[in-house]
Amino acid sequence: QVQLQQWGAGLLKPSETLSLTCAVYGESFSGYYWSWIRQPPGKGLEWIGEINHSGITNDNPSLKSRVTLSVDTSKKHFSLALSSVTAADTAVYYCARGGTTVTTTWFDPWGQGTLVTVSS
Amino acid sequence: SSELTQDPAVSVALGQTVRITCQGDSLRRYYASWYQQKPGQAPLLVIYGKNNRPSGIPDRFSGSSSGNTASLTLTGAQAEDEADYYCNSRDSSGNHVVFGGGTKLTVL
Questions:
Q1: CB within 8 Å: A106 and B33
Q2: How far apart (Å, rounded) are the C-alpha atoms in residues B97 and A114?
Q3: Using one digit for the tens of pLDDT, what is the confidence trace for B55-101?
Q4: Chain A CA closest to residue B28
Q5: Cα of B7 to nearest chain A Cα, Å
């Protein structure tokens, strides 16, 4: 059964770069898109972006090119970097495995979540 | 359009049936997937595709779609079903993913 475990710094200052990594256990890395999703405190879910094993990415245009996604297939890790963070980037960040067909996209399973707080 | 709209809150009496809806133009092309999220936990996939339940999800959860509206139906709501529910799909371009704003389900 696939499991995702994520880690990264939880407290950042404005203008710093957020960096998170997610490890995939118990599943092949290929054949899926691997996503990052965040949730500000008390608010809803926001998709950040996705990457596959070949390094092909899609990301949320609302984040204005601050997102860098990378993958290390040898370690079965994928990572998120979000530059120039502000308080508005304070959220719980989740990694998730994305399944996609022609007609649908779903996320299962999810990592445990990492609370990232941006504060001076 | 890249938006999915959900009612902020819905309530249901214990044992009764409730429908949670998700509206958006992209749903004319894509099926929604649905997630249950309880406080302090990561979201849990409950329905994906036309009407598929992951292993371990009770069959009281079902999904349907018509036009620009996707629905999650809970038949015989239980106290443990009280949670926030989110829908998602691809946006109309197919290149990005969008989530609905979430619906807080209260079981009375």
A1: yes
A2: 21
A3: 999 999 999 999 999 999 999 999 999 999 999 999 988 899 999 99
A4: A103
A5: 13
